[in-house]
Structure formats: C-alpha cells, structure tokens
Amino acid sequence: MNRIEKSPHFLRGNMPYVLGGFYVLMGVIAYFIIGDAFYLSYLIIGIVAAGIGYFRREHRKEFIKWNSKKIVLQDQINGKKSYSWTAVDDFIISEENLLIKSGAADGVYFEIREFSQTDIAKLRSAYPEFANLKHSA
C-alpha cells in the first residue's frame, strides 16, 4: 500500500505524557508539602494517563494509505476510516484538504496542509489512478 504520513505537533503527540507528568509532579509536591496520603492518588492518575498514552500512541498518527482496492485515512478527530474505490462517489484534492464523498451521507473531510509537499505531490500524482478505479467497478 502506498502511504503518506504526517507527524503530529509536539503537544498533540505527547499530551498524555505531559499531563501524566504534571499529575505525577503535583502529586509528589503536594504529598511532601501537605503530607496527606490522598495526594498520592495524583501520582496514580499520572501514571495511568502516561500508560494510556503509551498504549494508544498508534491512534495519534495521521496518515493516508491506498491501493487498487481501497483508501484508508486516519486522523485524531475522525479516527480510522476506510473506503473501497467502488463506494467512492467523488474524490477532491484541494490545496489544503482532501474530500471523499461516499453515498448520500457518508464521506470524510481530511486536512492535508500539514503533510509535506512531496507527500502531497505523491497523492496528486496518484489521482488519475483514483479516477480510473472509482469508475471501473
């Protein structure tokens, strides 16, 4: 499968670790300043947040991949969406967005402006292939 991928911004990609570290730090500081064991629960919350972030790290990646049968898109808002070329009614690549229409009420609006120019060029160069695939079913 052809694939283009963008790396998330630092905070977007590492937010669970930042929040987890903040909770761990606040729990430790509050425990030593106030002395109440209740504040150790912040430590637990921070470790859990960092653990969830670690195990869900694949869900923060944003990519577009395609082959002759389907196109798969994943972003942090919509999650992973897959469309077979036979179900795609319209496929539009603009300067900043990719729009896939499928059926009367299905489709996705995908932002591509943060992808590298070479990746966007790779997607655009495959566009004639997409046009042929969606009409050949």
Describe the model:
- Strands 1-2-3-4 form a four-stranded antiparallel β-sheet, with helices on one face. It has a three-stranded antiparallel β-sheet with strand order 5-6-7, with helices on one face.
- It has two domains: 7-59; 62-135, PH-domain like (Roll).
- It has helices at 10-34, 40-55, 117-125, 127-135; strands at residues 2-6, 62-66, 70-75, 79-84, 90-93, 97-102, 106-111.
- α1 (10-34) packs antiparallel against α2 (40-55).
- The model has no long low-confidence stretch (mean pLDDT 85).
- The longest helix is centred in the N-terminal third of the chain and has 25 residues, at 10-34.
- It has four helices and seven strands; from the N terminus they run βααββββββαα.
- The protein is α+β, with helices and mostly antiparallel strands and 137 residues long.
- 43% of the residues lie in helices and 28% in strands.
- Global shape: elongated
> Helix-strand pattern, N to C?
EHHEEEEEEHH
Low-confidence parts, pLDDT < 50 over ≥5 residues? none
Give the number of domains.
2
Main sheet specs: 4 strands, antiparallel
Average predicted confidence as pLDDT = 85
What structural class is derived from the secondary structure elements?
alpha+beta
**Looking across the biggest beta sheet, what order are the strands in?**
1-2-3-4
